[in-house]
Design brief:
Layout (H helix, E strand, L loop, with lengths): L7 E5 L7 H7 L5 E4 L14 H14 L4 E3 L22 H5 L5 E2 L4 E4 L2 E6 L14 E7 L18 H6 L7 E6 L8 E2 L6 E4 L14 E5 L4 E5 L6 E4 L1
Parallel strand pairs: 1-2, 2-3, 3-4, 6-7, 7-8, 8-10
Antiparallel strand pairs: 1-11, 5-6, 9-10, 11-12, 12-13
């Protein structure tokens, strides 16, 4: 008997409280939906308190259908000194509470069909991943030299530990990241690692009906980038 393969992956990142309704509609259409960090917003222009953001986002995750893998980003780690939030929600605690059978969060390592899904936290993430079959590494910051970061910006040039992890992963693995809103490229590889790296970036357009997102077809070996009011881009993987 042939096992059901994971075929379609939806990848988005850096939602910053936006496009939750769009994901509620579209996530159930995919075998796996990846959100690679920064669901919350610590922008100085943000009017909602962190406590309100945590409540709203937690309720949304509890209602979200489909299989979800997410990791915390720098905006998701509320410091413990913030008296507006429950202390147990600080430093990514609210994400831990969002874990359930269909929602993988920081620190989770689960088999999903033929892939091992690893959700790497923004702070205290593992410096290595145990060897195994093809892996989907969900991480907020991408690897140095992968193209999905900003090589000319020291603060945005990538995560050294992620760079060290990728050569240990099996060929056919994916590294799905975000953090950099306008990366050098939305796809790339690290020299010496047979791992496909992706970052959809973020649209800054007011009123965009959907977030930047990548659709990965693991059987057809094709990836597509969708951006608001821009032509679709597609590559073979």
């Amino acid at each position: 008997m042939q096992l059901w393969r994971m075929t379609m992956i939806l990848h988005c990142s850096d939602l910053h409280l936006r496009h939750f309704d769009w994901l509620s509609v579209n996530a159930p259409k995919f075998d796996l939906t990846v959100i690679s960090g920064d669901l919350l917003s610590q922008s100085p222009r943000e009017k909602l308190t962190m406590a309100a953001q945590v409540r709203m986002t937690s309720a949304w995750l509890a209602s979200l259908r489909g299989t979800i893998a997410l990791c915390g980003g720098n905006h998701d780690y509320v410091e413990a000194w913030d008296e507006s939030i429950d202390p147990s929600d600080a430093e990514g605690g609210w994400l831990q509470k969002a874990r359930r059978k269909s929602v993988m969060v920081d620190g989770d390592v689960r088999m999903l069909h033929e892939f091992r899904v690893v959700c790497r936290p923004w702070i205290g993430g593992p410096a290595f991943v145990e060897k195994g079959g093809p892996t989907i590494l969900v991480t907020h910051c991408g690897a140095e030299g992968s193209g999905v970061v900003c090589a000319d910006e020291p603060w945005a040039a990538g995560d050294f530990e992620v760079t060290q992890i990728l050569p240990t992963l099996a060929r056919g693995s994916f590294c799905l990241s975000g953090h950099i809103h306008d990366p050098d490229s939305w796809y790339g590889v690290v020299e010496g690692a047979g791992v496909q790296c992706f970052n959809p970036g973020v649209t800054e357009a007011a009123g965009a009906a959907f977030p930047n997102h990548i659709i990965i077809d693991t059987v057809a070996r094709r990836a597509e980038l969708h951006r608001w009011r821009q032509p679709k881009e597609a590559i073979r993987i």
